[in-house]
Fold these 4 entries.
Entry 1:
Amino acid sequence: MDLNLKTRRVVVAGGSRGIGRAIALAFAQEGAAVSICARGADGVKDAETALKQTGAKVHAATCDLGDGDAVRGYVEAAAQALGGIDILVNNASGFGRTDDEAGWAASINVDLMGTVRATQTAVPHLQKAGGGAILHISSISGLAPSVRTPPYGAVKAALIQLTLTQAAALAKDNIRVNCIAPGSIEFPGGVWDQAKTGNPKLYNGILAGIPFGRMGTAEEVANAAIFLCSAGASWITGQTVAVDGGQMLG
């Protein structure tokens, strides 16, 4: 299927590793112009190099997505570098695990407010382009109790609700807003890659609850992401799609 992404200008907030990097790379491989940001300079540089190898136009910058001014500045810089914005992907996570002020602040500032701020800044550019797509990356932790990570689960649930609200508000501007809720995704240096050796009891317990008997890959999330942002999903908005290998079925 030709996803008609060759002329699209895509901003991936949180695109240096894991799911975000896979999404950015998938867009670049489809011929889109791509901008990525993340907090770590080394990770951004490495991802930028990989993206440029596809032949795509690439913009990359360091940005603390928990800092409002930095988020707004990055999105504006990305729009200038790409010549506009057609697609915004909000992927970054502060991954607040602990039920204390620090844990809640990490998730709220990055996952929620980073998404809100990036979207508010990008929307005028999507309107100028005549429409486009916004995709939020939530988690299946937002669809069920999240006892191990209360802030993470609650804020990911907020992103699912935000998707509904933004989809209803922006339809008049021909802007679609959808959300992906990944299950347990394993990639080098990620949470589950670390847990495999650092907390094998937890890793194996989660693995036992996935019908396919394996963790998902970042590329499998990326496949869903580029479809939802493409013309092939032109009549899909306000939806949250679990990409979890049936993990929520247990």
Entry 2:
Amino acid sequence: MNAPITAEAQITYSNFIGGRDAPSVDSRTFVSHNPTTGKPWGTFADSSARDVDAAVTSADDAFRSGPWAALSPTRRGRLLMKWGDKISEHAERIATLETAQNGKLFSEMRTQANIVQDWLYYFGGLADKVEGTVIPLDRTSVFNYTLREPLGVVAVIVPWNSPTFLSIMALAPALAAGNTVVLKPSEVTSASAIELARLAIEAGIPPGVVNVVTGLRTTGEALVDHPKVAKINFTGGDAGGRAIAQAAGKRLVSAVLELGGKSPNIVFADADLDRAEAGVLAGIFAAAGQTCVAGSRAYIQRPVYDRLVERLVARAAGIKLGDPMKAETQMGPVATAAQLAKDESMVQQALTDGAELLAGGSRARVEAFPDGYFFSPTILHNVQPGNCVLKHEVFGPVLAVIPFDDEEEVLKAANDTPFGLAAGVWTRDLRRAHVMARRLQAGTVWLNTYRAMAFNSPFGGHKDSGLGHQNGISAIQQYLQTKSVWCELSEDIQDPFVIKA
């Protein structure tokens, strides 16, 4: 492990292939920046197609003939659990790396680094619960059974907002099923991915099972297009997901896609306003709005609209921006200069489209970090249906508040988006809560809570928010293929010109 990272330190990482560091064959590199300081932070391998080929070949060899292929599912699962223990032991360091890379609060990054142990324990425990079936055929002389077998090399591409957490969400079921993986992290957050792979080796997972290639878009494209990649798991924007689905379709391989969101957070007049206020704030300003499930559209019933909006504006104005390593900081910077510019331009476009500003709306100055990528917590109202901020994912701390009168009106508005990742409903009326849950077009619906997730509860999107699911028993099934085995027990000679049925 490297020495602890300070805000101003600069480090160098190579790829991690076959259980060891592997510099780019072309010696190409790129530089990442610390979003808190705005300064260069680390240098990483900018991988070419040859680097990707080396990683995929390593993973393919480990899958077909290495120690991983010879392990029983039980032993494979135990190694995943040990990996979880290792990550938890190093959670402080991983969290420090994450915060330096993406500017999210150290406390949240530490929590995520700790809880991935639960994911690895859960899927490690599922590794030896994969079972085939015996088929009761009409032909009693035939013994027919099925096997559930791993696919091979799985390509995993993750974004920068929760790199360790999202990586393990994808890697755990793929590995539990017996596959091997090549992980391509975001160029913003490459360091922690390599540290995870190093810890896998320390846990006893054989070399070649977990490989990491860093780089830019061309690196990801080379990985998606590699002929030995049998499955793709991608978390990111819908445009990237469409491109990956198209590339995967050309090779007839499948993909799990967790894409963007424009999630509604709906507050009815009978809701507990204290809890609803906290839920709306958490839904959009936690992690500076840089989550796929960000509750970026708050629909508030008219009898409580003015009162709740006034409270939200007051809380937004009081959010403490600053050093994400400090416990008192409530919101750090956004992760990149490009994201900062996007936040600013989308708010300006929303105002041009007729919205009015209640809070924030511009870059924020933090005295200790004059070059940091800080954006003020922003609230917009008088947002009409055609406004860009209601249709497109900002991925920043920008909230649109919209009044509504009744269930039918808010359902129509909430579902009027190409996305369908998540939704929140705040009400004391149980009938209403469950009716809303059924009628909202979203893969996850939270009732009187928001931004909750568990290793054993499926997570995935509807509509343009993705394909497939992470978490839960069904997740491991996505990394298996079925084989049907037929065994004739009779000694009779069959007519060779008649199909056996």
Entry 3:
Amino acid sequence: MKLYNILFLCTHNSARSILGEALASTHPSGKLRGFSAGSTPGTSVNPIAADIAVELGMDRALLKSKSWDVFGEPNAPKMDFIVTVCDNAAGEVCPFWPGNPVTAHWGFPDPSRVQGTDIEKRAAFNEVMNGLKKRIDILAEMPLDKLDSMSLKNIHAQI
């Protein structure tokens, strides 16, 4: 079975894109390998996002905020799919992605901006995680070798 690489992009690569990477990489279908990056990455991954990723089965040592430029380099893994998960990243001029990957935007509000108790903050992260999980579940059930950008975008519209 072919393993499909999916890159989740968000401006700071600290929360939503990290959750996407973790969900794809630990998806029970075994069809996906997740990656994440940002246009202006931060210095660290949000601790709540990191905790959720670890709970999903990711190795905490692999969770790093990184620039999307890394994935445009000649020796970078070839991406099959690229999904922006924040509106800022969706509106930015992205680098050239080798291999002509299928692209889409699945926008989610930034859970790291939620003010309140730890329970309220964690609930915001869980909401984004659940939204991403639904979309990734649908993606994994599709004929991935035949998927185009419109089909990938429609996954977001189905939810």
Entry 4:
Amino acid sequence: MTAGGALIISPDALLIKLIALPDAQILLWRGLLTALGFVIIVALRNGRNFLSAYQRCGWTGIGVAVLFSFSTFGFVLGNQYTKGGNVLMILAGAPLIAALLSRVFLRERQPLRTWIAIGLCMLGTSLIVVDDAGTGSWLGNGFALLAALALAANFTLCRTRLGIDMSPMLTLSGVLVASMAALVGGATHGLAWPPVESAVLLVLLCLCLLPLGFTLIQRGPLYLPAADVGLLMLMEVVVGTLWVWWILGERPAPIAMFGGALVLGTLFAKGLIERRRERRLRLEDAGGRLS
């Protein structure tokens, strides 16, 4: 689910470039449309138990929504005040932050293979965006760090309520993002309906792709440690680069191609190792029951 969600949201950066609207306006429509999209998904999944899906999340769900909102703002504003490569390199540290937070607050120990995978994926992501990185600004880098911290804290917080799906609370996150964008950019200017082409792309991205993709990603901590969810989200960086290459003709440098292969190869290898380990444990458990 997590990998599928990352693939679904991978055109995010490309579509934002094509929409070409002011940041406040994008954030406002992004918040409103994603909130509507999340409501539709929750209604389709739960039917008559629509409201109970929100009630089950409790105060933890509100915390998840707030953290998700901070990660959205940090990502968008980080790209405004510093180089995009800096933002992606800092965001690549989210799995490391999640692993540390899980160790401190949840007492979850990560196996050596996870730490190795985190290191390799951080290296691969750095190679992908090395051409678009630079000194940037402390403010922009700070916003990017806020996004990485909020993302990692979000996944870690979800792990405190195992068995409870927190994805419905992303509806509240959309409302918070829209409200803050309206305050920052002005509600009248933000609600001005964009040109037809931009409007179509906004609906595709914010009403369809982002709600579906992030619903899947937000369910990831139900089954995976927070660090593994963060690792799988790095697929968005790799596939998003390929989208830009295909649609806009911005061919990645050879070192970026190597970095993407390193990230995907690491995730694939880790997946195989985890799968084999799971099968071995199942066989051992079955053998123990028979004996």
